[in-house]
Prior knowledge:
Blueprint lengths: L4 E5 L3 H13 L3 E6 L2 H10 L4 E4 L9 H11 L4 E5 L4 H8 L5 E4 L4 H18 L8 H6 L7 H10 L5 H8 L3 H15 L4 H14 L1
Parallel strand pairs: 1-2, 1-3, 3-4, 4-5
Amino acid sequence: MEKVEVLIVEDEPLVAEDIAGHLESLDFTVSAIAHSGEEALEFLSDNEPDVALLDITLAGDIDGIEVAHYINKNNRIPFIFLTSHADRGTIEMVKETRPGGYLVKPFDENDLLTSIEMALSNYLLLHPRSEDLTLEWTNKHLSNPLSDREFDILMAMKSGKTNAELAETLFLSVNTIKTHLQNIYSKMDVKNRTEAMFKINEMLKKG
């Protein structure tokens, strides 16, 4: 299974390296670090990472919000804003770009992981071909087919539900959900929820 590739757009080198370290410890691949909006657009013009982490205030004339608008127009990948700015005006400008998440610095690895998982899940829900996600279609793309119950759990999982919420929705115990998830991960050749959502996105792209 290929790792999820993440673009970091952050103008403070030490902060960027710290984020990169968190990502690598979470088993993501850092595709590039851009220290300005201009660098980010140059990279995005020839590359397509799976997720982008964008600081709002950047060195140069192009800020993170402008990078987000460029992504929406040209790359169509989920992105998450990482910023120390949480005032109402900034949040309103951010909302117009339809981000996959918004993290206020400082944040921990768990916050970062959860945000990336949610960004991939939300992007999947909005994918123009999401209606193709039937059990039959999904199993055509897997060597080991999912059962009806496993597919139900996968579809519920993509909405960002926790194990407890999955158990409540599907009238199962949390331990049963965990067992089903391990079987799903094994059949999809992934390690966790993030990689599962990423693989579904890749399947949809390939058709």
